Amino acid sequence: MDNDKTYRSLKTIAIVLTLAWVGWSVYDGFGRDASPAVQAYAAANRFFDDGQYRQAIESYAEALKLSPDMLDARRGQARALIQLGELRQALAIYNEVIEKDPDFAGAWANRGIIHDRLGEYREAIRDYEKAIALDERVTDGPGWLTRLLRNETRRPPTFRDRAQYLKAQLAKPASERVLRVPELDAAQRPFRK
Hints:
By secondary structure, this protein is mostly helical. Helix content is about 70%, strand content about 0%.
């Protein structure tokens, strides 16, 4: 009797999940803006999520060729460059993007990451604080589902955490400062809306 109940429950769950997947597939394929620029941008984001940063940069460039004013694609290029360690090039892009859209908190936060990795800590703090002032949500970090998919059991440090840490370290005598902790610093990911 108990097996029948369990079987029916599992069958119902399987049907609901299948219908949800089919519904999402239909929405994803037909319900969205399918312009070539948006398709290239979506492909670039998939490459980025898969850690294929060079391919992501190429797809972001394709999106920009089709839609030169797509700032999300330009920001995507900069995020991929951060992941590749090409910080000066990423910094130049973020300077350009911030000039065009100074109200997007994510650009300030990511430029802060670049300054941080370059050892320009006061500039990093300034950018982190500007990002937080523009949009408090920038400090939320990835949600539980994103962390689950990335197999991250602990919440990575936020921009606010890093700014507070840097301030505390810069207040100490130079000989006592610990401004880099590579394993923790590597956990800080660029912001993406």
